[in-house]
Specification:
The chain has 74 residues and is mostly helical. The chain is built from 4 helices and 2 strands. The protein has a two-stranded parallel sheet. β1, α1 and β2 form a beta-alpha-beta unit. The termini are far apart.
């Protein structure tokens, strides 16, 4: 599972079911999420699978093809 802050691209990167987005500088929020994950194997497994599938969105070859299409359109 992914645990990211809502600063920067965190909210855009972490899709529902892949993990948690928390406030930056929120140690209590981070602890809450980590305790929840540590105590729930099923949740870890489900979010881990979803995050692995979601990571495929960032395939470098797909990104390169998209950038190439933009340059060709210009």
């Amino acid at each position: 599972p992914i645990v990211a802050s809502n600063k920067g691209a965190g909210p855009e990167i972490v899709q529902p079911g892949e993990g948690f987005v928390i406030e930056p500088d929120d140690p209590d929020g981070l602890a809450e999420v980590l305790i929840r994950l540590a105590s729930d194997q099923t949740l870890r497994d489900e979010m881990g699978r979803a995050a692995r599938i979601g990571a495929r969105r960032f395939d470098i070859s797909k990104t390169a093809e998209a950038v190439e299409r933009v340059y060709e359109a210009l």
